[in-house]
Design brief:
The complex is a heterodimer of chains A (about 600) and B (about 375). With about 600 residues, chain A is α+β, with helices and mostly antiparallel strands. Chain A has 15 helices and 34 strands. Chain B has a nine-stranded mixed β-sheet with strand order 7-8-6-5-4-3-2-1-9, with helices on both faces. A three-stranded antiparallel β-sheet of chain B has the order 10-11-12, with no helix packed on it. The longest helix of chain B has 17 residues. The radius of gyration of chain B is 21 Å and the shape is globular. The chains are: A alpha+beta (about 600), B alpha/beta (about 375).
Chain lengths: ~600, ~375
Amino acid sequence: MSIERTRNFCIIAHIDHGKTTLSDRLLQVTGTVADREAQDQHLDAMDLERERGITIKMHPVAMRYRAKDGHVYKLNLLDTPGHVDFAYEVSRSLAACEGALVIVDAAQGVEAQTVANVHLANKQGLTIIPVINKIDLPNSDIPTVKRQLEDILSIPAEEAILASAKVGLGIEEILEAVIHRIPAPKKWDDEKVRALVFDSTFDSYRGVVTYVRMMSGSLRAGDGVKMMSNNRPYEVKEVGVFTPKMEAREKLEPGDTGYVIANIKASSEIKIGDTLTGTKFPATQPLPGFQEIQPMVFSGVYPINTADFEHLKAAMAKLQLNDSSFVYQAESSVALGFGFRCGFLGLLHMEIILERLRREYDMDIIATYPSVIYEVLKTNGEMLNVDNPEFLPDFSVIDEIREPIVKCFIMVPNEYISPLMQLIMDKRGVLDHTETLDTKRVMLSCVMPLAEILVDFNDKIKSITRGYGSMDYEHAGHRADKLVKLDILVNGEPVDAFSSIVHRDKAEGRGRQLAAKLKEVIPTQLYQVAIQAAIGGKIIARESVSAMRKDVTAKCYGGDISRKRKLLEKQKEGKKRMKSIGKVNIPQEAFIEVLKSS
Amino acid sequence: MAKNPIRHLYVHIPFCAKLCPYCSFHVETAMRNKSQRFLDALLIEIERQAGAFKIEPETIYFGGGTPSALSLSQLEFLLPRLRERFDPGRLVEFTFEINPATVSAEKARLLRALGVNRISMGVQSWDDSVLKTLGRAHTAAQSQRTFDTLREAGFDNINIDLMFAIPGQSHEQWMRTLEKTGALQPEHVSAYCLTYEEDTEFFRKLQTREFAQDENRDADFYEITMDALGAAGYVHYEVSNYAKPGRESLHNFAYWDGRDYLGIGPSAFSTVGAQRWQNVPDSRDYADRIFAGDSTASFTEQLSDATKLGETLAFGLRTNRGVPVSAITPWREQMREFRELGLLENSNGRLVLTRKGKLMADAVAEAFV
């Protein structure tokens, strides 16, 4: 089939705006899946992703559609992970398409996540087809949604297709629009192989399954290929397309979206955005836009039971097979023992990984306060990237510390504007502008430090707005600020697990909060225990745990001796299991308690 | 057959009119078990033990439960027959625990006549509201009458058991109880901090937070006790025990010194040489085993020399005699730390707990186990 009759597109939608239903409907109408399979045929998502209301990875799917012009078209639908943590992956998936369907719920209107993803699609130069979905709902408000399309997304309202994926309204119109509005893939002058790698999965029998969009040239089993980022050569074992199951094909042609299996052992060998080319007549230039994926958020992850270290290590290795954007490295902490320093694409990615470790691998783990990557400019002009407060150089040699900032979109019902503005201020955000979305909602655009939205920003928005607010963000570079290292000292010794880089104005509050919480959980000792929060050498908060006054059993007679002795033995054992900071014995649970609360 | 004679004999009488909500001792309220059959079983057990060990007690201690729950005729039956089964020639201290509600003048005179020379009275408090919290059957007025009755019957060695840190009890209430006790001038006072023992009603209430524990408040109770009883002329000779000079409990000292003792009756512990065992904690089962000629032990333990030494040091340290400095050589470093913390002091070649250290006896004792 000719490249003129091929279309590659994706769907951009907020949670619950109908992406899954619409995809299912497209598969059904094009006869890709039989009606009876249609309900749950669609792209398997992990439970966790379902719960979080997002889908990270869905298979692409190839459909055939006989259009009203009488021709049969090859339509490739690609999924995009709908979250900014995966913005780079999204951008590569978008780069594999020429157009995007932007789905907006006719009753809910435009949401934050839609805004962020439409921005990404515009950057890629994609043709956008707006679809107003769920028009069958009694509370749908099409005029308002149309105005939002124009005002918020700068999409001409007359282009909008009115649809209801649920009842099957407008599906054909969407398919016709895909054919007529989205351009066919660009033709290249040569036939050299250029395949954009936009995703991969791991199959324990066949190794890495690489998802590619063929830009030029064709690929078949037996071909020699290489990755342009590192020139690693492989032999192609199988090529095929997704229907949505993997189906082997003789070859992949220009414009096709499909998979390549080539004896690749680990997903770490595959880099999203890389260009796959032939070894015989290789392309001279890779496709544009390739970047090494960089973790944005770091945290120490420790087994609660120290004996589980090896299990945790094995679990992380398995997770990484499927997700090469997750990185980890062994580290040890005085307070928490042996664990791993882990890098994540963002907070959601971190939550997903931690939750998968807990659920799928049954690991009991604790994570330290997450950190972003700070750019540290030293007085000698040297620039360091610091993701762990432990490695921050002495402040006397630091010229400035720059922290990553983001542009954040928050959509909220009108009545919550003022508490939301307060929250933004509390989080060191600067409100850029507000836009009225409709009679009920506004969108607040602000610039915020990434570190501030890491921990509980989204939860707070949800709780302030009773669940009606939504938030998304895009990265906006680095900015210097008054950042300091906050240490927590127990009898003068720093407790590594609690060190953090924080803004000077927030250091005292956080220091006081940590010290107070530690005071609650540190058991009384023979000595008085001083708990201090310090910036550099300066103590900014202090608490103390008074020395234990009473540790004595009242009765000790003939019948009590064995029992009493065993109690003493148990008490002694308990102390041995505690972590010793200076001379202070602290149970690991105490550290965990504090980490959980902060 | 142990070489050394048994010098300390304990007899457990497990019956109480009702259960106290804080008590975890082996106690039965079904008084029908308090039968002739049970008394016969006790006599058979002592007879059996007299075959295995040489029993020449210096001290006898009847504990419970409530030994005073035995009737006059039961006492008249049991006590003389018990004495016939060993050599009482060395006996110097014969203690009988009583509940203030169960001793008449007649019973007091009988006990005295049967050779009992020391009484331990479970007064607990001189405040009826506190007694109510404790679920005790007696009142403060009954305790007062019983104390007078005992004196009239000729007892010149009486211990009063008291409890503090009871839910709802104020420091002032406790001070009044101590003052009243001081005014009565018993020879001995045992003052126990309430312990929340597992499987008791009090423990459950602590778990459900109906009751709360506060280390500082409890420590204050201890301090008040030491001050008040010290001022009333008592020597603080063990963590929870105070006596007029020369009136320390010889029987209890045997436990703290790590000496051998033999326990008779259900749930009673014995330690002879390296052996420790406990009788089955059920009076029916106990009697059945006795009559079937079976062993009554439901728990046995072989004590290594190290364990025994550890125990002796750990529990010896609870008394004002302390432990010899020479015995703690392996723990010298730790002991020095405790001395620096003001918990221990050297007194004529012996290590003893300081006033502050008495409240921290377990933290110190832990080193030896």
